[in-house]
Amino acid sequence: MSTPTCALCGIRPASTREHVPSKSLFPQPRPEDLITVPACADCNQGTQKSDEYFRKTLALIVEPEPSAALEQIRPTVTRAFARPEEAGLFREFAERFQFAALEGRTVVQPVIKPDSRRLNNVVGKHAVGLYYAITGRPLPPSWGMIVLPLRWIDRIPQEDRPHWEQVLVASAGGVRRSVGDGGVFRFALRVADDNSHGFVATIQYFKNFTYVVRSYERSTA
Known about the structure:
Blueprint: E1 16-19, E2 36-39, H1 41-46, H2 48-60, H3 68-80, H4 87-94, E3 97-102, E4 105-112, H5 116-135, E5 143-149, H6 161-172, E6 175-179, E7 185-191, E8 199-205, E9 209-217
Antiparallel strand pairs: 1-2, 3-4, 5-9, 6-7, 7-8, 8-9
Helix pairs in contact: 2-3, 2-5
């Protein structure tokens, strides 16, 4: 049997398996139906720090109605910051704290300003992995991902909103799956009828963090 190609880079032969998303997002006991895809060592190991940044960021953002699953991993994240090897990441988060009014009152609360590009890259990696999990083939390296946090849809130019609203509708008609109790990870992904590399997806974490994604061909976008 031939060695599969890495689902993430679409170039190197796979030598391991990568969880999509990282298994650290799921509180113990972890579900048995976690999604894994073949990955090369470079992609598997090279994105570990970003995966951990993603998990810690979600755990530090206090949502109006946080999911029970997110509440379970928050103590683990807090304890991790006390480790000497986490000092650099702790400083990175500390430098991005700001203060904002709480519901219009003079009381202020800490607000984290995460590295959105880094978060979007992790979501893009998850989308590429899900594409492989559904189709059984890697996305060619000539294709990339565009990721938009759903909460930003009101910030983008008015003329661009119909496109992303169509992405939401189209993805809902594709493959849908939920992994883990409490809505830890949910997605809907649809491959285009006229292009096997074109796809749209909606990906949600802990019921509160939703992203819309589409693939694009780098040479023409």
